[in-house]
Amino acid sequence: MGNCQAIDAATLVIQHPNGKVDRFYWPITAIELMKLNPGHYVALLLSTALCPSADQCSNTTIKQNPVRVTRIKLLRPTDTLVLGQVYKLITTQEVMKGLSAKKFAKMKKTQSDSAVKVETRRSEQEENQVTKQRRRTTRTASPANSAITARSRTWQPKLQSISEAGS
């Protein structure tokens, strides 16, 4: 009698887009697998368990099932596939579709960020204009300031003439 779990840990599982599953019992590079399956990329499946909320994760009295999120990470052709992991073959069209969606999302985010910056600048400029207008109105409206301004305009220096002693 053997241990089935030991056999599973010593295999490398490859999932095809059509549902077919291949098992390898030795390490293989991504480029070798891509040569065996032209038009496909190799991706590592990364599975993560997330709690619906932080309270439910820390609270042991509530038994809430965590949400499982599976992500994929494309491998470089030089990467070696490791025993005990699950990998997926992805078609070139799916990869291109994902890359263009990612690029579009990044471009959309950049546009929204720049729109927020423009709106922020606009509001700052409006605030500065309002502040300048308030300063102008307080300077001209204040009676003390207007008296100082009126005095400073009428004041002129008086110089005594210097007489030259006879030479």
Automatic annotation (TrEMBL):
UniProt region (Disordered), positions on chain: 115-167
Domain of life: Eukaryota
Polar residues: bias regions: 141-167
Comp. bias regions, Basic and acidic residues: 116-125
Listed InterPro entries: PADRE_dom
Pfam families, sorted: PADRE
Protein name, UniProt field: DUF4228 domain-containing protein
